[in-house]
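User: Hi! I'm working on a homework problem where we have to compare a predicted structure to a textbook description. Could you give me the structure for the chain below?
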Amino acid sequence: QVQLVESGGGLVQAGGSLRLSCAASRTIFSINTVGWYRQAPGKQRELVALITTSGNTNYADSVKGRFTVSRDSAKNTLYLQMNSLKPEDTAVYYCNTVGPPLSWGQGTQVTVSS
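Assistant: Happy to help. Predicted structure tokens:
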């Protein structure tokens, strides 16, 4: 059972930046397409960024140009650099595989004030 632990969230003003991290208990990021998801109150969880095994990335239109996903396979860690944050980015952020998911971690709360 792989454990995923997200961190790096917090309270930030609109226009600010945060860097999220996701640590996995074993190697998954280099052998699976993985991504960052978020879930805002009252809304469904959505995929906002993904990175493939070959390093290609893709983003939801709502975050394109502002968020950057990357990984450090040696550290079994996935990152999400979030710039120019907006209040609508407020959500709990999770990492997981794209496709059949692993067990979800606890997520990390991101709150963007206007």
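For your comparison, note the following. The first strand starts at residue 4 and ends at 7. The beta strands are 4-7, 10-13, 18-24, 34-39, 46-51, 57-59, 67-72, 77-82, 91-97, 108-113. Good luck with the assignment!
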